Amino acid sequence: MRRDIESLTPVTERAAQIDKLVSDGAKDLLARATENYSLAEALLLPRIKTALEKYLLQDEPEAASSAVAEFIKQLQADDLCLAVACEQGNTTAWNDLVGRYSPTVRSAARAAAGSEDAAEDVAQSIWAELHGLRAREDGRPASKLGYYSGRGSLAGWLRAVVAQLAVDHHRKQSRLVQTEEDADFDRLSADAGDGVEISPIAGAAPNPEAALSEKLERVELEKALAQSIGEMSAEDRLLVKLYYFDNLRLREAGAVLGVHEATASRRLSRIHVDLRRRVEAILIRDHGWTKPETERSFAEVGLHLDAEIEPMLALKGVEGKNLSSD
Predict the structure, then answer these.
(1) Which of 43, 170, 242, 318 is buried most, with the most CB atoms less than 10 Å from its CB?
(2) HSE value, Cβ hemisphere, 13 Å, CA-based, for 173
């Protein structure tokens, strides 16, 4: 006998409500994806529900429908569809994954492994794990992509996986450390420094893979920034130092350089643009970042000129000279 929704128990009604939100979210996710590889909605439902239960409902079982919907909306549509399609054996998706993220994997492996040979071993292990070449006998997904939640970028998640496998290779263990274990991510995050909880959803649990990924991204961003500052001219470094660290007004900083206030202002604007371009080029060329990743990183972290950057502005006797060329 069919029962109306009003006759359902609170627990059953809540489950039905969550299922409806997950179903609606899956439809929206497929619509948002640039390439959804013709995935069926049913293939995304368990992945979305697992992420939802693990990172939101576990700590806030009575989360409002709006919070649940917002959580699902923040999942990375393109990356999640790519990961799920690869799991399903979609050749086009796998070729896209390898073509798009090989530079990211190689760069992360070189940074984490310490030697070229070790980096090659780590990179090959990653692709084997992602392709699911290692058979599982315990019912777990064959491919590590089965543990990508979609909460952070796939590139960031891959860096975290690479870092973990590099630790495993360094310790010469015979078994692979399982990326899906939260305890391992927490440990690695602790080794790297305090983890950063990036979830804006009230009540959402910390995302260990995202925390480690963000830590690695910050390190690479800082390295790129230091390199870019090192490539600046002495005059530009002096202007940055005078304005940001010595707290001179543009008129006063311009006087030190022997230029008009308006010229100093134009130079400072040009420095900002050049510095961002340099940093972006280094991240893409040397660290395998994508253009969207650099844009997101600049938006979230920004090139904030704080006290930690001052040592990078080595002036080498330039300060105090009259530098009147524009």
Answers:
(1) 242
(2) 11
Query: How many structural domains are present in the chain?
Result: 3
Report d(CA 122, CA 158) in Å as an integer: 12
Question: Could you write out the DSSP letters of every residue in 164-201?
Answer: HHHHHHHTT-SSPPPTT-HHHHHHHHHHHSS------S
183 and 248 both lie in a single domain = no
In the structure encoding, which two tokens stand for residue 168, read together?
């495993």
Q: What is the mean pLDDT of residues 101-123?
A: 80
In angstroms, how far is the first alpha carbon of the chain from the final one?
A: 85
Average pLDDT over residues 285-296: 79
Q: What is the mean pLDDT of residues 245-267?
A: 85
**Same domain assignment for residues 59 and 116:** no
Tokens representing 56?
A: 């939101």
pLDDT at 159 over 50: yes
Degrees, nearest 5: CA angle 14-197-80 = 65
Domain stops at, among 192, 219, 241: 192
Q: Which two tokens stand for residue 158?
A: 């891959």
Q: Are residues 243 and 269 in the same domain?
A: yes
| pLDDT for position 242 | 84
Residue 198 in any domain: the answer is no
Q: 161, 132, 314: which is closest to 238 by C-alpha?
A: 314
Domain that holds residue 97: 90-192
**Quick one: pLDDT at residue 173?**
38
Query: CB within 8 A of 242, min separation 6: which ones?
Result: 248, 252, 253, 256, 257
